[in-house]
Write a structure and sequence with these properties.
Layout lengths: L2 H8 L4 H9 L9 H22 L23 E10 L3 E9 L10 E11 L9 E10 L4 E10 L7
């Protein structure tokens, strides 16, 4: 069948069918709002799943630089700077070199510092060093403090 035969065949269609086709409307193809919401949710899930699967391949930003300043002390800790004179089996003995807050000791007072398993410090021989000692427990009768944190501090330029 060629175009001529097709054109001849269409000429035999009743006029009534042609008028009816021109004036009729297509059946409604309205999409339910729930279908649209479900389609958007499915697209969002596909995007999130793709990002999660690609996570190992994405570049990682470097860690922020480590601060070298003295740490901020939580409330409840007392701090003192001690000049270490002698290391012992349980810690060290020394004298108060500087006051921190709150002022509990006189400068020059002898203290015994106990280092426990929970104490945060770098194991070393502190003899002759100045160390910052954070503590919670203090026995004024025996001048013993139980250290929670120990850090070596540099010698100050001037002495009072």
């Amino acid at each position: 069948m060629n175009g001529k035969n097709l054109f001849e065949g269409l000429s035999f269609i009743d006029e009534r069918y042609i008028d009816e086709a021109e004036n009729s409307e297509l059946p409604g193809t309205a999409v339910s709002p729930w279908i649209r919401v479900a389609a958007m949710a499915a697209c969002l899930c596909v995007v999130m799943l793709s990002l999660w699967c690609l996570r190992p391949f994405l570049p990682v930003s470097p860690d922020p630089p480590v601060e070298t300043t003295l740490p901020i002390m939580p409330e409840g800790f007392q701090t003192v700077i001690v000049s270490v004179e002698e290391m012992t089996d349980t810690g060290f003995t020394g004298t108060v070199a500087e006051q921190m807050f709150p002022e509990l000791f006189e400068i020059g007072r002898e203290l015994n510092v106990v280092i426990t398993e929970e104490t945060v410090y770098e194991p070393a021989d502190y003899t002759g060093c100045r160390v910052m000692v954070e503590f919670i427990q203090y026995d004024s009768d025996t001048a013993v403090i139980v250290a929670d944190f120990i850090q070596v501090v540099p010698q100050s330029e001037h002495t009072d």
